[in-house]
Design brief:
Helix content of chain B: under 10%
Strand order of the largest sheet of chain A: 3-2-4-7-1-8-11-10-9
Bound molecules: zinc ion
Number of strands of chain B: 8
Strand content of chain A: 15-25%
Oligomer: heterodimer
Largest sheet of chain A: 9 strands, mixed
Largest interface: A-B, 58 and 49 residues
Distance between the termini of chain A: 20 Å
Order of helices and strands of chain B: HEEEEEEEE
Number of strands of chain A: 11
Chain lengths: ~400, ~150
């Protein structure tokens, strides 16, 4: 039987387009220091560290984790890095959870960090196309990368298939997700891009990759987020309520994506959702969840995830945003943090930040973005070609 | 609780940037699927791989069937297929930045059970949509790579 695992501490840097004044290990240091302070522990007490860092090319450093580990003063303690695309932070939390649940350690630091905007195209005088190039080395290099695939296309292709199958989500429904998440970000002091925009602003913004416009995309961010995960024994000594990870679910779909039987569904999220609900004993997610932090890498991904996680029937995700269900004032607020669209996507840090946000919600420390009376939330991280990986968690209060 | 608020950079640190680059050269072997790329280069033909037991034809090909772990056999495929899903890319990576807009589509080539990603070249990119029939065209100069061919509407 797995041991119970608590989130005792959370710390994050603000997410920004670029941290010119800090290296990746300096950002990691800031997040670790803040998480340890929140946990009331010192770095000497950490027994093991798990690092979520996605892309070596972003950091301009292979094996960046080993240098972070030294910089955090954790020399001679065990450490491990995970990298699973956009789901890297989620995978790091999953690994840290397993280390405690198994009885191996009692205090584990889970730290995600990413610094992408040092990548720069000198001819175009822009970071973005070079960052995209760095990501596309993760696409299948033999059959797909040589055709000009982009991260947006990797989400657009299942989105278009879903629209073809169900007639939804519509571009208007997607725009509403963008408006919501940009708006939610105003209440998050660590968010990169709070903006007051209208659906017309979204629909009229520059085309990026059909059906996505500029405002349908998440942000490229730099930042670091850290959690201190502990066993029940340590959590009991805490002088304030802690958050518990009561469910984990993980799935990896076919990454040679043309081999999938149905391109219109987020298969890994459906599978991870079933697993996470089984472990947390959730039968009716729409009623039993108080909020969710979903991986809105693109607006349609949030809507397809409503369906994958059983908030509604397949094909009906768009009606949840139409009916205001997932707004802050709705029954089931999604992305109170602003999500990847409003808060940002500092890849390795993202899933860790989402878990920290969920922990703040269920311990009622989320400030202005607090979901009233939040007891239980879902967190989803997805990554890889056409959402190959999903890591899902249920986070609950005492 | 949470991290400290946004702070001004430390006054003793003024950021200093240098241009840099990571480079790597390869002689990449296609391994078991070498016949697929050789057929593209030398014969301008598409090959699939078929598992007789599972009655499944793979394109992209694989020399092993991932369902039953038996070896597959090479089978010639035609040049036509159906678009299953597609998108038009308006903003691309550094390497493809000047080529926008272009279409990426998953195509089920007739006789194949899996989907192949390819570019479709059309007069108007907005014409790309699921369900249309397309035909492969091979470029006159070929290196043995996916960019050696593309699809056009039938
Ligand atoms: Zn077989």
């Amino acid at each position: 039987m797995a041991r119970r695992v608590a989130i005792l501490g959370y710390g994050t840097t603000p997410f920004r387009a670029r941290w010119i004044d800090k290296s990746y290990y300096e950002l990691a240091f800031d997040a670790a220091k803040a998480a340890l302070k929140d946990a009331g522990l010192s770095h000497d007490q950490i027994e093991s560290a798990v690092y979520g860092i996605y892309n070596d090319l972003f950091q301009r450093q292979f094996m960046p984790d080993v240098y972070v580990h030294d910089y955090l003063g954790l020399g001679l303690k065990p450490s491990l890095r995970v990298t699973t695309g956009g789901a890297t932070g989620g995978a790091a939390v999953h690994t840290g959870f397993a280390q405690i649940a198994s009885g191996l350690y009692d205090i584990v630091l889970v730290l995600g960090v990413e610094k992408c905007s040092d990548a720069f195209n000198p001819e175009l005088k822009s970071s973005t196309p070079e960052v995209l190039k760095g990501i596309i080395y993760s696409a299948d290099m033999t059959f797909e990368a040589p055709l000009g695939l982009t991260p947006a296309a990797s989400y657009a292709l299942p989105t278009v298939a879903h629209m073809e199958k169900y007639g939804s989500p519509t571009e208007l429904q997607m725009a509403k997700v963008s408006v919501k998440n940009h708006k939610n970000a105003f209440k998050n002091p660590f968010a990169q891009r709070p903006e007051r925009i209208t659906v017309e602003d979204v629909l009229r913004s520059k085309k990026i990759c059909h059906p996505f416009k500029f405002y349908d995309n998440c942000l490229y961010s730099e930042g670091a987020s850290a959690l201190v995960l502990v066993s029940e024994k340590i959590a009991k000594k805490a002088k304030r309520p802690v958050a518990w990870i009561t469910g984990v679910g993980a799935s990896t779909d076919m990454a040679f994506t043309g081999n999938r039987p149905d391109y219109a569904e987020f298969g890994s999220s459906i599978a991870a959702g079933k697993a996470v609900y089984k472990m947390a004993k959730i039968r009716n997610p729409r009623k039993e969840l108080d909020f969710a932090e979903l991986h809105d890498a693109f607006t349609s991904a949030e809507i397809l995830s409503y369906e994958a996680f059983g908030f509604c029937k397949p094909g009906e995700g768009g009606t949840l945003i139409d009916d205001g269900v997932t707004e802050m004032e709705g029954d089931l607020p999604v992305n109170p943090s602003g999500g990847l669209i409003g808060c940002g996507h500092a890849v390795g840090a993202t899933g860790v930040m989402q878990m920290g946000e969920a922990a703040l919600q269920v311990t009622h420390r989320a400030g202005k973005r607090q979901v009233k009376g939040a007891k239980r939330g879902l967190v989803q991280g997805i990554g890889g070609p056409a959402t190959s990986w999903t890591f899902a968690f249920i986070v609950e209060g005492e | 609780m949470m991290a400290r608020k946004k702070k001004e950079p430390r006054p003793d640190v003024v950021p200093f940037e240098i241009p840099d680059r990571i480079e790597m050269n390869y002689r990449y072997s296609y391994g078991g699927i070498s016949p697929f790329f050789r057929a593209i280069k030398e014969e301008a033909k598409l090959l699939g791989s078929r598992c007789a037991r599972c009655k499944k034809t793979y394109l992209p090909p694989r020399i092993n069937c991932s369902q039953c772990y038996r070896p597959t056999k090479w089978v010639p495929l035609g040049n036509e297929g159906t678009v299953i899903t597609c998108t038009t890319v308006y903003y691309a990576t550094s390497r493809f930045f000047s080529k926008t807009p272009f279409v990426c589509a998953y195509i089920r080539v007739d006789g194949a059970d899996t989907l192949l990603l390819q570019n479709i070249i059309l007069d108007e990119v907005t014409q790309a949509r699921p369900g249309i029939r397309v035909r492969a065209l091979f470029r006159p100069e070929r290196k043995g790579e996916m960019a050696d061919f593309y699809f056009v509407p039938v």
